[in-house]
Amino acid sequence: MIILDAAHPSGPAEQIRAQITALIQSGELAADARLPPVRQLAGDLRVAAGTVAKAYKELESTGLVRTGRANGTRVNPGLVLDTLALKDVQRVVTAARKAGLSLEDVQGIIAVSWNA
Amino acid sequence: MIILDAAHPSGPAEQIRAQITALIQSGELAADARLPPVRQLAGDLRVAAGTVAKAYKELESTGLVRTGRANGTRVNPGLVLDTLALKDVQRVVTAARKAGLSLEDVQGIIAVSWNA
DNA sequence: TTGCTTGTATTGGTTTATTGATACAAGAGG
DNA sequence: CCTCTTGTATCAATAAACCAATACAAGCAA
């Protein structure tokens, strides 16, 4: 389920992209699962079809999703978690929760450390 | 250091807000530290002063920052990851780099672990 | 093949964000 | 007191995002 917030600092397309990303990464949208057609999702969210298409295209450019034509847009298989020290990851997540941070906050912190 | 990406789906104001948020929560901007004046940061980023002011105002509305007038805009104490967790963050980033992962990959793994 | 669905692209009009400039009041410092 | 800095507010003009409608080609199914 995707919900658009008019008061959100980001626009509709970015909100759709971010929420679908979260649905995929949380496993709620499994690999090979099919996203709703652009027209359908656009109708549900009271948004133009081009706006949903824009979000889908960005999802594809980041590799989260692939798209045939009449085949629709489908979820790509996920990342291999074994490549990382999962214990450290879990420690970070636990500490962040304790500090009252959101997922987006933690991802921002990762980005800061990444570019440091 | 704040960097604006013209290709980013979000606009300048939102990018500034998100990056300063991350800098604060990662401890790189300590409590009571002073943010650059709106005109200065605007000049550095080649952006209008009102755009930076808009970002500052949203930061204040979320409580991350306080603002006097000529006192400037300063970081509020509180929402920071503890030093231990920050070390874990660095370990994760280092391991990810070694494994050849991208920043987006790591952020995705964080998201998966977050919803696990 | 035919028919239908889907993603993509285009067009024109509307809305929102950003710009650049200006002005103002609160506070700091001399 | 005065001066300077800072955040805030406003304005008209430009840029970007979004909308609504349409058309098209790729692929699936019958």
Largest sheet of chain A: 2 strands, antiparallel
Principal-axes geometry of chain A comes out as globular
The total strand number of chain A stands at 2
Q: Which oligomeric form is depicted?
A: homodimer
CATH architecture of the largest domain in chain A: Orthogonal Bundle
Please name the fourth-level CATH homologous superfamily of the largest domain in chain A: Winged helix-like DNA-binding domain superfamily/Winged helix DNA-binding domain
Overall pLDDT level of chain A: 93
Short description:
Helices cover 52% and strands 5% of the residues of chain A. In chain A, helix 1 packs across helix 3 and helix 2 crosses helix 3. The interface between A and B is large, with 45 and 46 residues.
Description:
Two copies of one chain form a homodimer. Chain A is mostly helical and 116 residues long. Chain A has two domains: 12-75, Arc Repressor Mutant, subunit A (Orthogonal Bundle); 81-114, no CATH class. Helix content of chain A is 52%, strand content 5%. The first copy, chain A, is built from five helices and two strands. Chain A has helices at 12-25, 38-45, 49-61, 86-98, 103-114, and strands spanning 65-67, 73-75. In chain A, strand 1 and strand 2 form a beta hairpin. In chain A, helix 1 (12-25) crosses helix 3 and helix 2 crosses helix 3 (49-61). Chain A is globular. At the A-B interface, helix 1, helix 4 and helix 5 of A face helix 1, helix 4 and helix 5 of B. Chain A binds a DNA duplex (30 and 30 nucleotides) through residues 11-13, 37-39, 47-51, 53-54, 56-57, 67-73.
